[in-house]
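agent: user wants the full assembly modeled, not chains individually. Plan: 1) parse entity lines 2) check alphabet per entity 3) run joint structure prediction 4) return tokens. Steps 1-2 passed, two entities, 297 residues total. Proceeding.
--- entities ---
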Amino acid sequence: MLLIRCPYCEEERPELEFRNAGEAHIARSTNMAGESDDDFEKFFFIRSNPKGVIYERWRHMHGCARFFNAVRDTVTDKFIMTYKAGEPKPSKLPKNSNEVVAK
Amino acid sequence: MAKAAAKTNASAMPSTAERRPALAGRSVSATGVKLEITPPAERISLRAPEASLAALSKALGVTLPTKPKTSATKAGRTALWLGPDEWLIIDEAGKDPLADCAKVAALHSAVGISHRNVAFSVTGPAAAAAINGGCPQDLSLEVFPVGAASRTILGKSEIVLLRSGPDAFRVECWRSFSDYVFTLLSEAASDAAA
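--- prediction returned ---
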């Protein structure tokens, strides 16, 4: 079983307590009605779906119930780091991705 | 004839509603584990920002813990940290924590959930092993010490787990899940004993 570090509970918890909540850092437009159809499609439907490092939202559903962000490698399924919701996208990832870094 | 039937029905009706707790009286004893239903308790779900904590703690008579996975107990009342702004208050002394919170002017949300939850006590040297039959958390004393509390899962059901002693746990679950949780824990208890 994967152990995922919850930044609110400040410890690693079993994956069964968590739910994935899609890609992170997708900002909703402040003028949604003025969006063109193409822009809305990009915002609403189009996801990066990379092979490798992905920034995702996760929810500690059966724990503190908080949403947070996680950086995960889609190839190895390894969690590189996790950080609280609302914090900026980390510009630099920890070198040793085997180690889940506390933020 | 209809009149007579109505009369019989009326006399068969009890004068007061009888409260029947879910699973009342059921218990299981296996080697090393004892599983019992705890008596009804008053419970509230409390949500509050940091600025309201001091006033709420004072009104409740128990300091609301702010550290993850901890709880605080005073005079039969336990406050369990569930999330950064969420607590479960359990009162086993028969007092009403909802009324205490109602006196607080500071911003908060207190919801009475006394009847939503059913609690089990799991005690004995194999208690942790029995709960681990369905719960993936590390329940060793170093990681989950006495007083530690956490919302987690047991099999398919969400529970709130509180360690009240080295060999004693309190498992809170929703009433409608209680049959499932009790059965799973009974099976796990007999497995843990083996």
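agent: reporting back. Chain B touches chain A through 13 residues (CB under 8 Å). The two ends of chain B are 62 Å apart (CA to CA).
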